[in-house]
Amino acid sequence: MKRVPLLVMCGVMFGCSTESRNASSAARTDFYAGETLEVIVPFGPGGGSDTWTRMIVPFLQQHLGEGARVQVVNIPGASSVAGTNDFALRRRPDGLTALVSAGTTYLVYLMGEPMVRYDFGDFSPILASAVGGVVFVSPDLGIASASQLRDSPEPLVYGGISATGNDILPLLSFELLRLDVKAILGYASKGASRVAFEQGETNIEYQTMPAYLSNVTPLVADGSAVPLFSFGVLSETGEVVRDPAVPDLPTVREVYQDLFAREPSGVEWEGYKVVLAAGVAMAKVLWLHDEAPEEAIQALRNAARQVVADPEFQEVARREVGGYPFHVGEEAGRAASTAARIAPTTLNWLKALLRDKYDIDRLR
Description:
alpha/beta; three-stranded antiparallel sheet; 13 strands; globular
């Protein structure tokens, strides 16, 4: 299997513009006129990827040609591997099936999960955006800030899908901050783990920004959840800075500084930044098969370009997913070009942590 380097998407957080809307591109086609495009979301309904996709679909459908339809197909399972394998192995590369990958989809690929049967080198990027995440707790804990987490009056219980997917971001946060958290893994989706939080089965949780803004901010407003920190985003210089979608929340880095009066460093911190790059920068990407007809790729990219330029879409995106920049076509592909490969020592440390703490010894 080919491996792509772990890369920070150039300017996904800051500074890099979408592919020029004035640039000359392939002429618009009517490839999708009268056709149905299925978009596979390899997670269940209600999570961040599902929210991101369903936000885009109505706008995308408007620009695909007369009579075109876009249908979302949820195929959850195995930390997004089931649906992505389905796309890679079972769906014909005819341009009529697309995939939305998440940070989890990339992380399990990066970590060498043996069940992964897809290769990102076989996919053609259409549309991409970074997406951050927020950690929050139950008000029953009486905790008002992240600096109080280590003195929680009750055991901290977290619910997630898998330690090899995007859950590794909060799990590494807990590791860095020296928090004693019991992790209950195996939920079908982050939508399901959020419901578990709402029902009191867990008391510390995270959601990616689309799900946080749509499903958690109402809980914050009625006092049912207390946001503590974001994972942050990587600046162009590789520094962890505040997430522009939640600028009032401190980052993991700031919480660490507050707790230990020093900058985070060492292999734990390098591992965190590696996972942050993959989990945030590769958070949401719409793909077609690389072998799809060129007219399908260009038609879908042209439609995506029009979506990104639509002021109504921009307002909806700002409200529902945090207003992160969107990148189209080759710009979305080049967006993964500016960071170094993951160092073998960091990758080995991550795999050792997963093996020793979460009993995951299957990684290659």
